């Protein structure tokens, strides 16, 4: 459920900082974030879908907005697709987790805690501004796109992926409801224990977990996203969509797992759920995505260019 339209931008940003700080330690396991070949393939294919072509060679000096634990930048950097890597987030906790992963992977990154609407960088310092699953959290998107345009060099590009579509959000309600209804039987089948404090959800303390309903500000129609970059001076705007069955599967699995104490969910089950997701992603990208309009897919992808 998105934040109330009457919430002030300050309240939304504060909720985002506290919620993501509390979630940082368990974020990668909760969302199945992978920095191996699977994760690298996922992000490369998202960028390829956004651009309409596979990225060949480096996309240049990059600035990620709302980088979280590093899913997008760290996986792209490992494939030599980024030069100087700068990552930002409103949550210091998420960037601490990212820095630890970057060190483990041997990737040099600059981490900067800041918000998208106010970037502490010189004009024209980057070739690429990118993000994954972040635009829907930002209260003032016109101001944020103004900042993206300012910090990009002429000819530079924005690429944003993983944005929930308004219709996809409605479609996701079904697997969420099915997962919740089937959860008691599923827990008995796999031997998982019911969550003792369903509000607290494991690592996240209850107060901050309750903020989950306050951190999402937007769910986009493709036309909303299409209209955003032009106001800031971008051209060559392209919006596409991805994921149908994979999303149905993913939300169903997440809704089951959210009802169990995380450490009691068997590893074999987690692997099964993750492999299923990856298999359905392949089905979506080969069969459904080329045939369905972005309106019917769950995640939206956006790219645009700063005139050179
Ligand atoms: C759904 S998470 C996605 C994280 C990461 N990009 C990924 O795909 O795994 C959204 C991230 O955006 C950050 N965020 C939320 N509001 C923000 C804002 N106004 N400015 C910058 N980052 C923000 C959150 O702290 C969080 O790390």
Please tag this protein with its features:
308 residues, single chain, 12 helices, binds S-adenosylmethionine, 7 strands, Rossmann fold, alpha/beta, seven-stranded mixed β-sheet
Detailed description of the structure:
The chain has 308 residues and is of the alpha/beta class. The protein has a domain at 9-165 and 205-244 and 293-305: 3-Layer(aba) Sandwich (Rossmann fold), CATH 3.40.50.150. The chain contains twelve helices and seven strands. The chain has helices at residues 9-23, 27-30, 37-51, 71-77, 92-105, 141-151, 166-190, 206-209, 212-215, 222-231, 245-257, 267-288; strands spanning 62-64, 85-89, 110-113, 126-132, 152-164, 235-242, 299-305. Strands 3-2-1-4-5-7-6 form a seven-stranded mixed β-sheet, with helices on both faces. Strand 1, helix 4 and strand 2 form a beta-alpha-beta unit. Helix 3 packs across helix 4 and helix 7 crosses helix 11. The longest helix is centred in the middle third of the chain and has 25 residues, at 166-190. It starts with 8 loop residues before the first helix and ends with a strand. It binds S-adenosylmethionine. S-adenosylmethionine (SAM) binds at residues 13, 16, 20, 33, 65-69, 71-72, 89-91, 94, 115-116, 132-134, 137-138, 162.
